[in-house]
Amino acid sequence: MFSVPTRTQYGIRALVHLAMSEARSSTSAEIAKAQSISPKYLEGILGQLKNSGLVLSERGAHGGYRLAREPEAIRMLEVVEALEGEVKPVGCLEDSVHCDFDVGCLPRRFWSGLKETIDEYFASKTLKDVIET
Amino acid sequence: MFSVPTRTQYGIRALVHLAMSEARSSTSAEIAKAQSISPKYLEGILGQLKNSGLVLSERGAHGGYRLAREPEAIRMLEVVEALEGEVKPVGCLEDSVHCDFDVGCLPRRFWSGLKETIDEYFASKTLKDVIET
DNA sequence: GTTATTCCTATCGGAATGCTAGGAATATAG
DNA sequence: CTATATTCCTAGCATTCCGATAGGAATAAC
Questions:
Q1: Does A44 map to a domain?
Q2: How many domains does chain A have?
Q3: Fewer beta carbons under 10 A from the terminal one: N or C of chain A?
Q4: Sign of the C-alpha dihedral, residues B5, B10, B16, B19?
Q5: Per-residue pLDDT tens for B103-120?
Q6: Which residues of B touch A102 (CB under 8 A)?
Q7: Which domain holds residue B34?
């Protein structure tokens, strides 16, 4: 249960790779090979990270990707949300949705608490934390 | 992300229903109607909860389901694992699996920490907590 | 203008999810 | 002993999501 999609796992591995490649930019193909990720699939993932402002890219020959900020300034919550969207265990946590079961949707708080717990964990970790252990 | 399967949501709603029905046992159909859950689908879910020892059942006319223990003695971690199996964000957390990327699977600790965080949350809550908001 | 790269869009097979169907087993009531 | 109410078991099915692939357009360096 709660398995993390490969999309997110790959995205994080790519960020780790970039963080460890220091200043120089890496190409998508290079990262894919080093991390054993399907090259074309990774392209799309890097595109997402770019659109979220976590990485910068340069096109054309000698192009590639690099981190937009220092690893310690990249919170993992941002990363996860960039790749898979907000953590939302159950649909009824949205304000717009209203639960009206006879018991009054008691589990709502339970799920809400789970979301907060997970969000806090992600928010408390930076890319630097992931690398340094 | 991290959306909880309806199976688990329904299972918990069913347990809440049983907990609030006190001593008397409820039929699957009764719970399904009260909680707006597909009757046949719920039957299977209750079967799982029964096989895990969380609820007791009686067959035949006047049969039904009831909690196997007091709500305060039912930890939500048990419930979740009964319905969906162990929390396991990424496959490489198993001992048998070995990661050998060039970066040495640095994110492993990160995912391991996530699993612990989620498990602790579930383990810290009982069915009684869920009911009492 | 050739080459290396990002970027965009479309597609696809397989697995999981959520649900349905049918009926067998079992207990109670009369 | 029959009718009825219920759990229990197995199979199947439609849809969606996931992971991956394909082809090529845009762009930049040399």
A1: yes
A2: 1
A3: C
A4: negative
A5: 457 888 999 999 999 999
A6: 34-35
A7: 6-132
